[in-house]
Amino acid sequence: MRHASEPHRNNNPRSGQSMVEFGMTFTLVMMLFLGIFEMGRAMWSFTTVSYAARQAARYAIVRSQLGAEGADSAAIDNMAKASAIGLDPDRLTVSKSWTPDNHRGSQFVITVQYPVDFVGASLFMKNRNTLTVSSTASYTILN
Questions:
Q1: Torsion (CA) 33, 39, 45, 47 in degrees, nearest 10
Q2: CA–CA dist 138, 98 (Å, integer)
Q3: How far apart are CA 127 and CA 118, in angstroms?
Q4: What kind and span of H or E run contains 120?
Q5: Are 73 and 59 in contact (CB under 8 A)?
Q6: Which of 50, 75, 104, 106 has its CA 20 to 30 A from that of 31?
Q7: How many CA atoms lie within 13 A of 66 on its CB side?
Q8: If you write DSSP's letter for every residue of 68-110 in order, what string do you get?
Q9: Rounded average pLDDT over 64-84
Q10: What is the spatial distance between Cα 141 and Cα 65, in angstroms, rounded to a whole number?
Q11: To the nearest 10°, the Cα dihedral for 86, 91, 94, 95?
């Protein structure tokens, strides 16, 4: 007979099985959540980069022939960096071109790139923890 002060002990050898199963399942579920979070951040970065490319392209084509107030290369870069809200502007890469020049009927193409660092990837992969998202906008100068 057992006294009230004695703790109940389970002599079943399978008593730790549920703890092991929980540990394995919890690890997989947390890895899944981390992957969903990281891909969400990458998609948000891509959407922000796309918006920055569109805004900078629009800025460039509207101000293409305005003379001193016009869109020079540095002003277009600044517009792209200002439009990429939430991203580090120092890591944003902007490349642009006018074909053949910056006058009416010409084509303006801008490409904005940003490296997205994966926080969780460094736990599993040593060398591949950055994804570069890129967006290109192309407009014809009509003014």
A1: -110
A2: 10
A3: 11
A4: none
A5: no
A6: 50
A7: 11
A8: GGS--HHHHHHHHHHHSTTS-GGG-EEEEEEES-SSTT-EEEE
A9: 82
A10: 9
A11: -160
- Transcribe 4-27 into DSSP letters: TTSPP----TTTTHHHHHHHHHHH
DSSP class of residue 127?
A: S
Q: Which residue pairs, CB below 8 angstroms and at least 24 apart, start in 18-22? A: none
pLDDT confidence tier of residue 9, bands split at 50, 70 and 90? low
Give me the residues paired with residue 97 across strands. Answer: 109
- In single-letter form, the type of residue at position 72 comes to D
- What order do you get walking across the sheet with 107-117 strand by strand? 93-99, 107-117, 130-140
Helix, strand, coil shares of the chain, percent, nearest 5, are 45, 20, 35
Q: Name residue, tokens 């792209």.
A: 80
Does the pLDDT value for residue 25 go beyond 60? yes
Q: Is 105 left (phi over 0), alpha (psi -120 to 50) or beta?
A: left
